[in-house]
Design goal:
Belongs to the CinA family. This is Putative competence-damage inducible protein. InterPro entries: CinA (IPR050101), CinA-like_C (IPR036653), CinA_C (IPR008136), CinA_KH (IPR041424), Competence-induced_CinA (IPR008135), MoaB/Mog-like_dom_sf (IPR036425), MoaB/Mog_dom (IPR001453). The chain is α/β, with parallel strands linked by helices and 415 residues long. The protein folds into three domains: 2-177, MoaB/Mog-like domain (Molybdenum Cofactor Biosythetic Enzyme, Chain A); 181-258, Alpha-Beta Plaits, CATH 3.30.70.2860; 263-414, CinA-like (Maf protein). It is 41% helix and 25% strand. The protein has helices at residues 14-17, 24-35, 50-63, 81-89, 97-109, 157-175, 194-200, 202-207, 233-251, 263-274, 288-294, 312-317, 323-329, 334-348, 394-414; strands spanning 2-3, 7-12, 40-46, 66-70, 93-95, 123-125, 129-131, 140-145, 148-153, 176-177, 181-189, 212-218, 221-230, 255-258, 278-282, 303-308, 352-358, 372-378, 383-389. The strands form five sheets. It has a six-stranded mixed β-sheet with strand order 3-2-4-9-8-7, sandwiched between helices. The protein has a five-stranded mixed β-sheet with strand order 16-15-17-18-19, with helices on both faces. Helix 2 (24-35) packs parallel to helix 6 (157-175), helix 3 (50-63) packs across helix 4 and helix 10 (263-274) runs parallel beside helix 15. The longest helix has 21 residues, at 394-414.
Length: 415
């Protein structure tokens, strides 16, 4: 068995340094490695430069027992991962025949000619375990070299995840000796800020070592991550459940879901359970709210649709907001928001109507500053609107408005 105490993740690609692509691979790998009881000590990103990649690999080899490299396995001249590791380790490379056959078959099916540089994808190191890539052409590689396990994976997230799930994690479990594993669960909260949540749980956050309790800001609210270490999954889960009970005994009124659940998916489940439908009328959010719901499978049974009524004329013609109402109150107003919510509910025949109107910025409108937002709600019992003063750039204000709308719907359904 191989003892692996320090893991490191290296992403190769200049596009990551330029900000053209976000390094989501590292966060996903770190989370999955933690579940295996492997501690990630370093994340590195290095551009497509042979000297710098070699230098980064050398540092990683000195300090880590497990190094996972993503990217740089393609066919072009700037794909330098293999060359850098071969130079650092002096391990020779050869063309892997099964991969060559797969490449030739791929191009034959595409009815295109395989250029000479594509053969580079079939290069593997002597002593390497070659991992078949079911989602792409370049294989993954695992190499045990001078006491360090090196794993090479494509940078494309779909391919990386497939290889990790199908080959890498089982290899690490099979060959690694571990004293304990790490298990986490995430509690999700809505309608409460991070500072208030942290205040309510301050002693649990600062005094607990196993499990640990950490607040994090999420897209649609605030989360609490609880992480336990134990020799078995059952023991770790029991520690997490006990801490979960302590947390919810204090802030359970804001709790809406766990782990991968989102506020939107929770709302859809509640709408289905209550056999209710929803329709939206959006001005400043421009369809973002409807998209948040419709992006979830099964939304068609409860989400009737939406009207994007950005211009004043669209509010009048599509939604039937009276000209006189807009003349008197303006489009950025409680009166306009309530009319939009009421009318879209009736127009699409929904049980709930929700509307968004306001000023996203950067400048003011109708004498109201950027961040002024009105969200209307209409049900069979009442019609009303909520006013918010939000802060940030244009996109942030629009996103916050959608989240506020989700919170209002959640409170309505929960009551």
């Amino acid at each position: 068995m191989i003892k692996r105490e320090k893991a490191e993740i290296i992403a190769v690609g200049t596009e990551l340094l330029l900000g053209q692509i976000t390094n989501t691979n590292a966060s996903w790998l770190s989370e999955r490695l933690a579940e295996l009881g492997l501690n990630v000590f370093y994340h590195s990103v290095v551009g497509d430069n042979l000297h710098r990649v070699c230098e980064t690999f050398a540092h990683a080899h000195e300090r880590s027992d497990l190094v996972i490299v993503t990217g740089g396995l393609g066919p072009t001249d700037d794909d330098l991962t293999r060359e850098a590791f071969s130079e650092m380790s002096s391990l020779k490379m050869f063309h892997h025949e099964p991969t060559m056959v797969k490449l030739e078959d791929f191009f034959r099916k595409q009815k295109s000619i395989m250029t000479e540089n594509n053969k580079k994808q079939a290069l593997v190191f002597e002593t390497a375990e070659v991992l078949d890539n079911s989602e792409g052409t370049a294989p993954g590689l695992i190499v045990e070299y001078e006491g360090t396990t090196w794993v090479f994976l494509p940078g494309v997230p779909r391919e990386m995840k497939s290889l990790a799930e199908e080959h890498v994690f089982s290899y690490l479990e099979r060959t690694g000796g571990r004293d304990e594993l790490i298990r986490s669960l995430v509690l999700r909260f809505s309608g409460v800020g991070e500072s208030k949540l942290e205040t309510e749980l301050k002693d649990l956050i600062t005094e607990q070592s196993n499990p640990t309790v950490a607040p994090l800001v999420a897209k649609d609210g605030v989360t609490i991550r609880i992480t336990a270490k134990a020799e078995t999954a059952a023991e770790a889960d029991e520690l997490n459940e006990k801490m979960k009970s302590k947390v919810l005994s204090r802030v359970g009124q804001y709790f809406y879901g766990m782990n991968d659940e989102t506020l939107a998916s929770t709302i859809l489940s509640m709408l289905k359970e209550k056999k209710l439908t929803i329709a939206s009328a959006e001005s400043l959010t421009g369809g973002m709210f409807a998209d948040e719901l419709i992006s979830i499978p099964g939304a068609s049974s409860v989400c009737l649709g939406g009207v994007v009524s950005y211009a004043r004329s669209a509010k009048e013609r599509l939604l039937g907001v009276p000209k006189e109402l807009i003349d008197e109150h303006g489009t950025v107003s409680e009166a306009c928001a309530t009319a939009m919510a009421k009318n879209v509910k009736e127009l699409l025949g929904g049980d709930i109507g929700i509307s968004f109107t306001g000023v996203a910025g950067p400048g003011s409108a109708e004498g109201k500053p950027a961040g002024t937002v009105f969200i209307g709600l209409a049900t069979s019992d009442e019609v009303h609107a909520h006013q918010f003063s939000l802060h940030g750039g244009r996109h942030s204000i629009r996103s916050q408005s959608v989240n506020k709308g989700l919170e209002l719907i959640y409170k309505l359904l929960k009551s």
